[in-house]
Each structure stands twice: as C-alpha cells, then as structure tokens.
Amino acid sequence: MAPTLTPRRDTAKSDAALLAAADLARAALEEVAEPGTVGAHTGMEMLADRLAIHWFECTSPGYHGWRWGVSVTRVPRSKVATVCETNL
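^ thats the sequence. predicted structure below, dont judge the formating
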C-alpha cells in the first residue's frame, strides 16, 4: 500500500514566539557577520509550522542589495525559539 502524502500548504500559520525572536536572530547574525554589516530588520516569513526566517538588510558595500536571513524554529508546545542557521 502506498504511503499517504499530506498536501502541501501554501501558507503556514502565524507563530507569536517566532515573530518575537527578531532580537535572537539579530544576535546570531552579529556573532558571524562582519561588524556593522547587519542592518534593519525587514520582516519575517513563515516557511512551515514552527519554522520561520527573519530578514535583515546587509549594509556591507560589497553586497549592495543583499540581505541576511536567519531561520528560527521551536518545538511543539514550546514558547522558546532557537536559531537553525544564518545566511547571506
């Protein structure tokens, strides 16, 4: 018997704990980025249930128009977010 596949949802539901994790995301970036290259927080995008990415401007002259991304998640029933990865 073939496995049952769950249909892909176009949008994940909002998550207050992940939305509130912008400062956590910025702190993670400041640990890995060149000093002074993390700009303004430009928003958050839900990728899946309990998984989101926070976006920040990149202010490095060599990367004009680029942005930093920090993915954050939380385990079910937890109110605490954790950083998955950072990227430019």
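The chain has a mean pLDDT of 91.
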